[in-house]
Specification:
By secondary structure, the protein is of the alpha/beta class. The chain has a single domain (3-118, 140-207), classed as Formyl transferase, N-terminal domain (Rossmann fold), CATH 3.40.50. It is 40% helix and 16% strand. The chain contains 9 helices and 9 strands. The strands form 2 sheets. Strands 3-2-1-4-5-7-8 form a 7-stranded mixed β-sheet, covered by helices on one side. A two-stranded parallel sheet has the order 6-9. Helix 1 (13-23) crosses helix 7 and helix 6 (130-136) crosses helix 8. The protein is globular, with a radius of gyration of 18 Å.
Amino acid sequence: MKFGIFSTLSNPLLPLLLDRLHELLIKDFFIVLDDKDFSSKEKEIWLARTGGELGFGLTLSDLSKYQTPFYFVADHNGIDCINLLKRLSPKLMVNAGTPRKLKQEILDIPFLGFLNVHPGVLPKYRGSSCVEWAILNDDLIGNSAHFMTSEYDQGPVIDLEIIGVTNADNYMNIRINVYKSWIGLISRSIIKVLPLKDKPDPILDVGPKSIFSSIGKAEMLQVVEKISSGSYIQALTYKAEIK
């Protein structure tokens, strides 16, 4: 197999990625599902961000339609998973929602490494709720394709995509556009990386930076207000004009 995907059965990112790969006629990959599934809290956050417009996770019967080999493991870091990857010997692995902080032993198995798309503009925005923190700080939002290391969101970045925002957008529109961009960027990155004989040169290296934590309710209210009032767009326009 050329590459594999780490995810969980009900992670909603997985069907989005599988549908895109199917559209692009990309085959010869496998899926490894961790038993630690998408939590009820994560499902609530997904629904608040998307309103259900992008769907939810898969069922076992859904998986069969993709005609792609899939494997269940107790833990993406576990010895069973290590042995599975060594046996399958993928050139590349792709993160589509692992619930684990991956160990270096796992990260070292695929020849090219583990590809991830982070919903934040690296190197500044590492961690959680990066879209919301960027809006709160009047910064651009976007996705960063990078190779994973044992530290969160710190691997070399190979591509970036900035998400455009208009006065017609509300918070949910913006979040849905971020996820749609995630689908496109990770698919393009797979296509870009797979033919290579070595990792592509990074467009930037992500050194140690502060990591953002999940945004609180008070800050979230400010985010929604900044979008609805137009002050976020105004701030971005002003920053662009003074450059």
